[in-house]
Amino acid sequence: AMQTVADDLAVKWKEDPDVDVHSDMTAATLEIIGRAGFSTPMGLLGDHAAASQGTDAFVAALSRVLAWASESTNDLPVIGPIREVFAAPGIRRDVNYVRGFVDDIIERRQKDSSVENDDLLGLMLTTRDTETGELLPVENVRDQVLTFLAAGHETTAALLEVALYHLAADPSVGDLIVAEELSDGAALDYDEVVRLRRIKALINECLRLCPPAPGFFRIARSDQELGGYLVPAGRAVFVLSLAAQRDPAVWGADADEFRADRFLGKRLTASSPEFFAPWGTGPRSCIGRQFAIHETTLLTGALLSKYRLT
Questions:
Q1: What is the structure's pLDDT at 224?
Q2: Closest to 166 measured CA to CA, from 203, 139, 218, 136
Q3: What is the CB neighbour count within 10 angstroms for residue 117?
Q4: Where would I find the H helices in 55-78?
Q5: For residues 65 and 71, what is the distance between their CA atoms, to the nearest angstrom?
C-alpha cells in the first residue's frame, strides 16, 4: 500500500517537477494511512479521485479543529472563554464533519464483503474481546480511525518536509544514499526498506533538529529538585526536546548543524548522554512510531531513486 502511494507521487512529480512540498507530503501521508490502514484511497493522489469524496473538506475541517485545540491550551483567562463562545458553533460543525467522514469509511467497509478484513480497520471491526466475546463499539472504532488520521498524517508529513528540504539544500547527501543503497534499482520491499541505514540516519538527524512534536509534559508525583529548582508535587514540567536535542555539551560543537552521518552506527538508549526523544517516552510514546519510520524511509528512498532534489 505504501509503495502504491510512492508510485503515484513519483508520477505527479514527473508531470510537474515544481513541487509544493507541504501539499504533497500531506496528501502522501493521508493516502498511506487510508490505503494501508483502511484499504480506502483518500482521493488525493493517483487515479482514485472518485473513490473518496470530501477528503479536501475533511483535511480543512480537521486542520481547523487541531489549530483551535492547540490555541485554546494557551488562552488567557477571561479572553479565552469569550473567544471559545464565538468559535464553538464553527468548531462543532467541523467536529461533526470529520466524524461523519470517518463514519462513511466504516459504513462502506461494513457493506463491502469483497474486502478482506486483514487491515487495521477490518481487525478492529471483526476481532472479539478474548474475555467478553464482544466487538469494539462502532463509536470506539471511529475514534481510533480518527486518531490515526489526525495524529498520523500531520507529524509524518512535517518530518518528510524537513527531510526533503535538507536533501534539496545539499544534493550530495542524496547522491551518497543513491550510490550506496539505491544504485542497484532493487524494488523497495519490506526487507529492503529495513536495510536503508543511511536514510534512517537522515531521518533521525531531521528528528533531532526539527522534531514535529517539540517536547512533552511530565507532572511531578512528589516534591522534586531538578537542576537546582524545586518542583512541587503536581506541578507540570515541559521537556523541550527541541533544545535538549541541540545541546552542544553532549552533541558536540556542531550540534546546530545538519550532519546526516551523525547517527550512522549510533544506537541511543535511555542511559546515553545524548538526549533524543522525538517520539516521547514511556508507555504514552508514539504508538505509530514504526509505521511512520517505515513510510518515511520508503517514500524518501522511492523518490531519491527517481529524482535528484534541488
A1: 95
A2: 203
A3: 14
A4: 55-72
A5: 10
> 76 is written with which cell numbers?
488567557
Q: Over the range 5-38, which residues count as b (16 or more CB within 10 Å of their CB) and which as e?
A: bbebbeebbeeeeebeeeebbbbbbbbbbbbbbb
- H or E element, residue 239: strand 236-240
**pLDDT single digits (tens) 86-110:** 678 888 899 899 999 999 999 988 8
Burial 274-305 (b: 16+ CB within 10 A, else e): bbbbbbbeeeeebebeebbbbbbbbbbbbbbb
Furthest-apart CA atoms within the chain: distance in Å:
63
The torsion region of residue 282 among left (phi > 0), alpha (psi -120 to 50) and beta comes to left
CA pair distance 122, 129, nearest whole angstrom: 14
Helices 197-209 and 138-169 sit at what angle, rounded to 10 degrees?
A: 100
**CA gap 126, 117 in Å, rounded:** 7
Could you give the 3-state DSSP secondary structure of residue 87? helix
- Tell me, what's the pLDDT at 302? 94
Residue 310 buriedness (CB in 10 A; 0-12 / 13-18 / 19+): exposed
Identify whether the C-beta of residue 19 lies closer than 8 Å to the C-beta of residue 147. Answer: no
Cβ atoms of residues 65 and 95 within 8 Å = yes
All cell numbers assigned to 267: 544506537
Q: Which residues pair with 210 in a beta bridge?
A: none
Below-50 pLDDT ranges, the chain: 50-51
User: Looking up cell 512541587, which residue turns up?
Assistant: 232
pLDDT attached to residue 150: 83
Quote the cell numbers at residue 264.
550512522
Q: What predicted TM-score, i.e. pTM, was given to this entire model? A: 0.88
